[in-house]
Every structure is written in C-alpha cells, then in structure tokens.
Amino acid sequence: MDNIKPNYKEILTREPFYEVMPNGYKAHRVVRRGQKVYEPVDNPLMRVLTQADFLRMYYPSGHAINDPLLYPDIVKKNPENGKTYVQPIMRTAFAFQQVITTKQRVHITGNDIQFELSGKVGAESEELQKQLDFTTFRQGWLDMDMEHAFYDFTEYKIVGDAAIVFYFDEEGHARARTLSYMKGDTLYPHIDSLTGKMELFARKFSDYDENGKFTSENIEIWDDKYLYRARRSVANTKTEKVIEKIKDFFGISGYEIYYQEPHGFDRVPVAYHREPYGPCFMASQQTIETYEEAFSYFCENNRAYAFPIMWSRGDGVEFKPDEITGAVKYIEIEDNDGAAGFLEKAEVSAAFNAQLKLLYDMIYEQSFGVKPPELKSGDLPGVAVKLLFSPAIEQAIHDSQKLQPFLNELVYFVCYAYGFEKNCQASLLNLSINAWIEPYIHQNDSELMTNLATGVANGFLSRQTASERASKYSRNDEFQRIMDEELEKRKLDAQFELDKMKAETNEAIREAKATARNGGQDVNTGNGKRGGRTTDKWGNHEGENNWEQYNRTH
Asked: What's the CA gap between 144 and 325, in Å, rounded?
C-alpha cells in the first residue's frame, strides 16, 4: 500500500478542553438481573473550557467572586429622594491555584533530569567511547539549557498543554524554546491516531503595535521537512515576501506564506504534551470558589458588626460629644428607668468555622498538596519526611510516568541537534540513554551521602552509580574526574616505587664496588687485610686515606 500523506484541511483546529456536566446522571432504564439488553448510548454533556478560563482561575483577579454578574453588589433605594445606591460587597479571592501549581512544578523540577547508559556491555574500548559520547550528550543538555526549558514547559500545569521546539540559530548552534499559552501561543498538534507520531504542528500568535492594537495574526507550521511562516494582517493585504497562499496548500483561508525553509531535522522538531483534564488545580477549583464565597460572606458579616451599635432606653437620655473629636464622651440619663449601652458583637458559630477549615483542607488534599508541617524537633529521618509529603510525592511520581514519552522525545532531539552541531550525530543517536524524572523530596543530604557511601563500601553499589546519584554535588563528568584522579594517584605511586627501587639498586652497586676494593671485606664492617698489610676498619693502610678517591669516583 502506498504511503499517502495526510491532507490537512483545517490546521487551526484541535480538541478543546472539557468539563463534564451532571446532566443524565444515572438516568437510565431499570432491568432485571440476567436480562440481556443493548447498552444505551450515553454521551455525557461537556462544557467547553478555554485556556483563557484557565488563566482566570490561576490569577486571583480573574476569580468568579470578583464578577459582579455572578455575585452582585447590594442595591439600596433612598425612600426620601428615590435615588438608588450600590453598596459594594466584600470580595475575597485567594491564590490557591498558584500555590498548588508551584508545589507540583517544584516536585518534578527540583532535581535535574536523571540519565544513565543502558544496554549490553561491550569491549573495554567500546565502553570507554560510549562514556565519552555520554559525557558529550550531557554537556549538550547543559549547553542547550534544557533544564530551564523543561521548567518553562511545566506551565502546562496552568494552561493544559505546552511544547518545546528545537531549531538551529544563525550560527548553527542547537537551541530549544518553550511554547505555551502563558507566552501567548496557541498550539495545534496533529498526531497520527494509530502510531502517535507527530505529523504536523502549528503555533498561532498575534502581533500588536505600541498602542496595544492588534496588527496581525501569525502562524508557524512544522512538518517533517520544512518550517512555514504565514501571516494574516488586519487588512488582509499581500506583502512583498508573499510567495504563495496557504489557502490552497493547507486549507486555511486568509493566511499567506512568506517564509519556507528546511528546519534541518528528520521529523517534526517538536516535543508536545497535553493534559486532557486541564490545569493541575482543576480538581480543587469548585472547592476554592466555595471557600472564597463563604469567606467573603464572613468578611461582610465582620464589616457589618465592626463598629458597636449603641442603644438607649427612656426619654431623658442625652449624649454629650467631645468638643474636639465629636465622639460621645458621656451620657446623661434623667429618666430613672433610662439606660444606654452597646449591642454585643455576634460570634462566629463553630459550624461555620468547621466549614471554612474543612474547605481549606480539602483544597490541598484534592490536588495532592501538603501544607508545611510544624516541626518541634530537629532533622527528621528520611522515612518520616516521605510520610509527611506522601501526597505530593505520589503526584510527582504520577506526573513523571505521564511525561516519560515527552522526555524520550527531548533526549532524541538533543542527540540529533547537538550531535549535528558537534559532528558526532551518529555516535549520540547510537547511545541507549535511559532518562527519567527524579521527584524532589525534602531530605537530609548527609543521610543520602551516607547511604551512597555505605552501598559503595559494601560492594552492592558502584562508584559510578553513586557519583551519578549524588548529582547535587557532582559535575557533568564527575566520574571521569574520579578516574583521572585515581590514574594520577597510581602514576605517583608507581613513580615512587620506581625511584625507591632505583635508589636501592644504586646503593647495592656502591656497596659491591666498595667491597671489591676492600679485598672482599664488607665495606660496612672493615677490620680486614688488604694486600697482606693490616688495615683499619675503613680499609686504609697506616697513613693512607682512600676517601679522596671515593669522593672523586662517586
């Protein structure tokens, strides 16, 4: 079967984000047990949510409690003149969404992305070359600033989706850039439903003039070979750079292509991820709105009773104000039955306090957030810390599994782009690199280092693995540095032994020569005869000194 290229009629279309409606909940027929019937078609009603709605949820200024249409102000009418007055109500919005988002983003980006070589072990020279190539890859990850790009990518937890696009700059260096609605981009991925392969990707953004007025709408489109740029201005007029209309080619009316160049990759150079359920705080959104409404009523009640209300009884009650401040200084009561006082302030009921507390706790629990506990002692052991932050750790593990395909795409594009830049593309692409997200856990660093050292000392953990796990303190080529230090130490030890052997050999030669001159007598003992004549312990005849000759020859 011939390979047929998909025909995209509508590039600027995608599946929207939804919110399930309760219509039709359990509204189905009743049957007897064992009765065989056709299962009814039950398509739930969905309310479409836009990414602009997600931004309104994220920023407190856009919360529903601040909308006068949803929560109207108090309208009062003056009976004397008939005029209508609007009394604004207390509106209190909280940034729970930002707190939840920050916590989840930190737990998946607090540690750098972890890498290790996988696959079969080959010859020593081959393994050494792989280690060098692996070091090159990790250097490329740093040079392309992928850790920062990955952190920016986690904005998908706010707006539902994000992408990282790879490209080569004017100097031929490999680069990466994050795209998301937070940065003004609307993303349109076109993915094969069977293979999951990205076949085309589009990004839409707008241009504005210095007065904030909309000037044009732009589209960037990537396929497996080219990067296209198209524009639709306000007047929809042609420019000098127009080379062809995108309407006939892509089926988008009004846009005109003004740029088309090969992007330099063998596939669409975009790694994309979408969260179908929307932002990470979506599960707590309704509880947050209920909490803000209840707290606003609480503040309104406090405002109503903020100043005490005075009451008086009897006809002879006269209030005497202060001449300077005008405040009531004292009260004269002429009537014997007269009295005056203040109404007692209404106390908040225990039930209302329990409601606020329960809503507050559920906001964090539904989003797997953890409120920082109050510690009354010093450092906690690792197990205790993990138990305290168990919900956050579970969410981070859940996110790391969902992001694994996205992470594999990042590794491939870094190998491809940085390998092309450094002229080692085939070597990097041939590496079997296992990459994963290590969720950030509050822990005692000394305990971690002790565990690593214990593993190495007991022989069930290699020094290389320990070096990789201690990435907070190690450099990109830390294990290579350890090997270099070990090699230098061996060289110094070998040189020391060589110098020692050389010194001992020279000393033995010297002693042998001295012994030969002494007629076989040990140079260290002396007291012998040389040539039939008596010598002293140094081998000298009477009146003879051989040290001058020894000094000349040594």
From this structure: 69
pLDDT given for residue 274 in this prediction: 95
Question: What's the confidence (pLDDT) of residue 144?
Answer: 94
Instruction: Report the distance separating Cα 61 and Cα 319, nearest Å.
Output: 45
Tell the burial category of 245 from Cβ atoms under 10 Å away from its Cβ (0-12, 13-18, 19+): middle
Phi, psi of 433 (to 5 degrees): -105, 125
How long is the chain?
554
Distance CA 8, CA 250 (A): 6
Q: Is the pLDDT of residue 399 over 90?
A: yes
Helix intervals (H) in 367-477: 382-388, 390-402, 404-421, 425-429, 445-458, 463-469
> CA-CA distance, 549 to 517, in Å (whole number)?
11
With CA atoms as reference, report the closest residue to 166 among 422, 427, 420, 437: 420
- Is the Cα dihedral 128, 130, 134, 136 positive or negative? positive
3 state SS of 186: strand
Pairing state between β 328-333 and 161-168: unpaired
Least confident of 25-29, 250-254, 457-461: 250-254
Q: What is the DSSP letter of 311?
A: E
- Please tell me the chain's helix, strand, coil percentages from 3-state DSSP, rounded to the nearest 5: 40, 20, 40
Which of 436, 456, 453 lies closest to 445 in space, CA to CA? 453
Task: Give the position of tokens 């599994």.
Answer: 401
* DSSP H or E stretch at residue 273: strand 270-274
pLDDT over 80 at 424, yes or no: yes
pTM: 0.74
**Does residue 158 contact residue 279 with C-beta atoms inside 8 Å?**
yes
